[in-house]
Amino acid sequence: MRKLLFLWMMIVPFILGSGLMIRGATYRYFGPHVTAQAPWINSIVVYNNGDAAGTFKITVHDAAGAVGHQQEYVVPATSFLALVMSNDAGYIPGPAEVSLTPVEGTFVIDTDNPKIKTKVAFRYGDSVSLCEFFLSDTLGWEFILPNTVQAHLAWTGLSLMNPFDGPLTVWVEAFQDGVLVGQSEIADIPPGTKYVRLSDGFWPGLGYDDYDQVRIYSLQQAFPPPMSITGNNDQDRHLFFNAAVTALTNPFTPYDAGDLYATDSIVGNLFFVPAGSFTQGSPADEPCRFENEGPRFTHVLSRHLAVMETEVTRRMWEDLRAWQPDLPADPSNLNTTSGLDDPVQYMRWREALLFANLLSSQQGLSPCYYVDSAMTDVLTVNNYVNTDYYCDFDADGYRLPTEGEWEYFCRAGTDTPFWVEEPDYVDGTCAVCTTETMPNLESVAVFCANRPDGISGGSTAPAGSKAANPWNLKDVHGNVKEYCWDLFIDAYPSGTVTDYVGWEAGNTIRVMRGGSFVHTAQKARSAYRDRRNQSTPGFDIGFRLVRTVE
Q: What single-letter DSSP state applies at residue 312?
């Protein structure tokens, strides 16, 4: 019996994002495993389907999680580059192949070029057993793996990969003819590792031909595609392939993205935003982008949210103050507002936190904000000025979104400069403030081209007066800039990061998003990042609240 070949696939550390990724990299392909066991030959073939040369970076991690190889390579137009790790003493590399030192581990390919695709191949020495398939850059909540039951095959295994910075729990379920025959919880896979077992290691007593397909899912977050490894006892027939994603968002919540989650008596409708992952930042070719909108990275958001339909209005502020007199008076600059249904503005960042905690108290929810790291001293009107601030993101009360959460629900599944397609937004129009220059954007955003007249030349508009995005959220572009929780940092991380919040401490500059009635279209983009000292108000700055929900 040569099943022992795959027993080496124990939990292998995988450190994601070590080293520098290509600036602005958008596409990340996870290689579930490479092996240093003889006589396996591992081939990583990177294809370029474009008419110009393209660049990628490979990072190979060994069994201890250390970087064994990291380098950028160029692939010629409409051609390919083959990287080979051979454990076969008789193997002779081809003239166009790049030989790498074999390691027992994993690899990641990063590129900013959508024309570049990665294929992985495994050959067992000089046998005719060759398996190859393209890798996907998609994270998912749920996957399907068929069990290829054939007379010439004898065993199968499954690899689960956790590239994140916290433990990952995954469920694996085996089915035979539509009947559940095996179910296991793989709890708390350690950060940066993979979990690999033969079938009876997942479901004790379940043989190779006792099931025909597997469902793999997480209730926690999206994760990379699992991999199936099947073979025979003579090691001359093998089958390797990745799972297919069947859910990009959590399929086990009763709500879909954009469903009405609740209606609050003070701040109105809250719409459901599922946990998920997206590419944060703007691509290098987006018109009039700023350098601090990159590098693009995969942001995994592990919390479901209920998000306000609109920005907090002056009327909402007054309604809460009627019940919670500790809330300061409406701070809005009356020269730049058209009425009580406009967004409240000219508050300081800390006053948005106070509003959130008072609203949570009023509605019987747990507060999110504290002034001590142990989170025992709740932020109140008596201590919210000139202090340190801490957030309990798992509390069920109201809070500001993080910067990543904000961009995620603003985009609502889109990857264009705005959630609405605007073909007239180009380098020559990004700073234009002329009505009807960008009609699609004007239908969803209040900005300098269509703002109402005001005492000082322009003002906010009533909240929610423009069309909603695909998740039923209004005014994510324009009207007022919206405070986020994060301290501003000038560049994003690389790779894949879970629940990123920028600096933990070190400055008092907070992120704002969405642009305002003062700004051009350039600053209303989904990826645009603004900033303000947390003690400094602005007549075009407001906020929108969210809640962490199950």
A: P
